[in-house]
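step=encode ok
step=design start
structure_in=
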């Protein structure tokens, strides 16, 4: 009986081996293989592909993750600018622009006006409500006057009773809240706010103010038909015909490059209409088919249709309301705008106490004078001299010498083209030497780390 059972088990095992041998070696067979067995001989290659094709395939497989890595790096969005950057003028002007809407911010005393709040990192997010967005997220409601009452004695939403004077104690309380309204760990409270000269216009370097003037002239081309009567300062309108002299001299010095566009070429035939507002910092724009003037610094917007005289106006009313249709290019800026306000411009040296438009006019006069005496005819030189002699505010608009970024004004002689080219070559040579020294220093540091 025992023999029959053993025979049956053996047959059963053979049957299982025959069923599994066609697909894979059984686990029991693998375990029975001795560990000291000799390795099997290498099988011959049966692939018809050449080694070069195999190598190219492997290299493409290796480079594919690198390409994916580059695409992911390119697709990553740029990091947002830090909230605390009191030195950043663009960030300050962006905060100041949030206060420009009269529907959300009403006029405040100078000690707690929009400039003071923006210098400490606040923005206007709702009706008379400021917030530290991106920082401590604190919020304050700046309400200096009570709301007006309607006929039923109810408060009118979004209104202020300007017949009531502002209490001095309330103003002093908000002066403290400009700083203490932030959280205790907020940098706008601990480290301080923007400096007093954060609104200063870049009007020292000629390459900067000349390009900005051209850009404003280009933008004003779209609204030149709507620029009617404008009021400027004495001694400014005579600069318009002389700007042609300035551009001719600059074109001779810089060659006939197509990248350089003259100011007079950008302004077209209507030079006085376009150049005069541009000298006072205004740009042109058309929004919803309405022509407007804008200031990129104080975010002021002036609708030009408001200064169009009605056609059916009588002569008596025209004489009485004559000033209503004259656009004052200086006083239409906001009170804190450096184009109008010399205190926010914070000029130093010879530009101390001058507003932005006065500094720009002085720079234009300085640029015209050398070109008229060196390159132009005697008639042009006499034109500048006569203008300077007959101008009643010539002393009020001084000729400002070019200077450095920190405001240190120095007199610089007019250089020839050869001198400028030699200076550029010397500067490039020094930069190349500096790059070689830095690259050598970096290489030595890497070798020390490897060693």
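sequence_out=
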């Amino acid at each position: 009986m025992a023999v029959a059972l053993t025979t049956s088990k053996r047959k059963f095992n053979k049957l299982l081996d025959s069923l599994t041998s066609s697909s894979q070696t059984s686990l029991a067979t693998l375990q029975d293989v001795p560990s000291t067995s000799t390795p099997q001989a290498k099988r011959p290659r049966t692939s018809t592909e050449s080694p070069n094709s195999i190598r190219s395939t492997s290299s493409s497989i290796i480079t594919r993750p690198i390409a994916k890595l580059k695409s992911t790096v390119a697709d990553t969005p740029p990091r947002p600018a830090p909230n605390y950057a009191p030195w950043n003028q663009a960030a300050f002007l962006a905060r100041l622009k949030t206060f420009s809407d009269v529907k959300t911010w009403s006029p405040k005393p100078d000690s707690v006006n929009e400039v003071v709040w923006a210098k400490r990192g606040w923005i206007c997010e709702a009706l008379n409500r400021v917030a530290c967005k991106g920082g401590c997220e604190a919020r304050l409601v700046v309400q200096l006057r009570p709301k007006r009452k309607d006929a039923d004695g109810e408060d009118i939403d979004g209104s202020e009773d300007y017949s009531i004077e502002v209490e001095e104690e309330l103003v002093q309380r908000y002066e403290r809240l400009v700083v203490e309204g932030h959280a205790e760990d907020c940098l706008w409270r601990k480290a301080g706010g923007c400096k007093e000269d954060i609104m200063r216009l870049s009007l020292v370097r000629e390459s900067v103010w000349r390009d900005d003037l051209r850009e404003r002239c280009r933008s004003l081309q779209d609204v030149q038909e709507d620029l009617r009567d404008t009021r400027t300062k004495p001694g400014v309108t005579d600069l318009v015909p002389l700007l042609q002299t300035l551009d001719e001299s600059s074109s001779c010095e810089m060659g006939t490059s197509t990248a350089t566009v003259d100011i007079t070429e950008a302004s077209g035939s209507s030079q006085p209409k376009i150049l005069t507002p541009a000298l006072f910092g205004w740009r042109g724009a058309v929004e919803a088919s309405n022509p407007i003037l804008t200031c990129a610094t104080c975010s002021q917007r002036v609708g030009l249709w408001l200064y169009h005289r009605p056609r059916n106006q009588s002569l008596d009313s025209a004489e009485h309301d004559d000033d209503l249709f004259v656009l004052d290019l200086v006083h239409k800026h906001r009170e804190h705008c450096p184009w109008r306000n010399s205190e926010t411009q914070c000029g130093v040296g010879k530009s101390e106490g001058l507003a932005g438009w006065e500094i720009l006019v002085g720079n234009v006069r300085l640029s015209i004078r050398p070109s008229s005496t060196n390159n132009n005819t005697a008639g042009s030189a006499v034109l500048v001299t006569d203008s300077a002699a007959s101008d009643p505010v010539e002393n009020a608009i001084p000729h400002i010498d070019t200077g450095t970024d920190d405001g240190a004004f120095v007199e610089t002689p007019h250089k020839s083209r050869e001198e400028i080219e030699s200076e550029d070559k010397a500067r490039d040579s020094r930069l190349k030497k500096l790059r070689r020294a830095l690259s050598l220093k970096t290489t030595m540091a890497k070798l020390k780390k490897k060693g």
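step=design ok
step=annotate ok -> Confidence is low (pLDDT under 50) at residues 25-31, 248-261, 375-414.
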